[in-house]
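Case study.
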Amino acid sequence: MAKGFKKTKMLTDTPFHYCPGCTHGIAHRLTAEVLEEIGAEGNCVGVAPVGCAVFAYNYFNCDMQEAAHGRAPAVATGIKRVHPDKIVFSYQGDGDLASIGMAETVHAAARGENITVIFINNSIYGMTGGQMAPTTLEGQKATTCQAGRIPELNGNPVNVAEMLAQLKGPSYIARVGLFDLKHVMEAKRAIRKAFDMQINKKGFAMVEILSTCPTNWGLNPIDALEWSKNEATKTFPLGVFKDITKEEE
Amino acid sequence: MAKLSFNKPLCKGCGLCVTACPKKLLSLSKTESNANGYFVAVIENEEACIGCAACATMCPDCVIEVER
Ligand SMILES: Cc1ncc(C[n+]2csc(CCOP(=O)(O)OP(=O)(O)O)c2C)c(N)n1
Ligand code: SF4
Ligand code: SF4
Ligand code: SF4
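After joint prediction, the assembly is written out as follows.
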């Protein structure tokens, strides 16, 4: 049992700019805690996205590189190939990873690049004011689908984890939630696993984290977590979709 | 007994710690706000705290530290 709680040294002292109750903050902290656990201090490079997490480079206490919108997996590929001994990760939202950057995501996964991807699925474009994302749920309202997403008109949500799990390249693909203490602890274990895969040179690992956007969902932070737990999971069930260490056993 | 410390200037009054506490010890102050204008989280009855750190684990802004 962990004794108490202290902020990890893998986060800087810069206050997060996120909206009240936005779970980007929890996802940052879990990632940083895992970096500390695996002893990555001084030996890791993160790649920040475009989106609400664009300032991630101010928050993670390690070398950081900002990528153009959606290109983080390509940038991380370059960094990892030049510095194979460094721990390299990207941190990306769903607009970044699954819309403009879908090609980079799929090909980095297909190549089995030995990087770790932290994917924040909040079903919306947060930074730009709540437009529909590839991950917006059927019926979910966004500024660009004000009557709720209609598949015939707006297309269907994309299940990134399930899709990438079909590829040969990835070593580990999981989807987790941050609804409560239990799920946050589970999310941390999944992130740890995704970094362990990189340490053991197993190739591309991604954790899709169901995150909240209270501001653009129009919900208070507590109701937003409930919505994530009860609604988002209907389209995006939690689980491990690929784990080659299980297959090897 | 556990000891909690709040980095109050960082608190955004989101209430996630309040719902997370199994002992229902936390609440958002009705009178005390920080420089950003948020009513901050406070603990009522610190003696009853079991030091489980559920509050700190759910806080998106690393406001709470728990010593036990
Ligand atoms: C090339 C380019 N196209 C579009 C934009 C505008 N833009 C900024 S953030 C963003 C989407 C962010 O959504 P997401 O990745 O889901 O992250 P979130 O803000 O929800 O965390 C877009 C389209 C941009 N900055 N650059
Ligand atoms: S707009 Fe949404 S995703 Fe962005 S910081 Fe605010 S709540 Fe978080
Ligand atoms: S440590 Fe546990 S019991 Fe104490 S205030 Fe936090 S959640 Fe409540
Ligand atoms: S979870 Fe953190 S930011 Fe939110 S009210 Fe509690 S202490 Fe403040």
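Observations recorded in class. Residues 24-248 of chain A form a domain with the Rossmann fold fold (CATH 3.40.50.970). Strands of chain A lie at 44-48, 63-66, 87-93, 116-121, 172-177, 205-210, 239-243. We will return to this complex in the next lecture.
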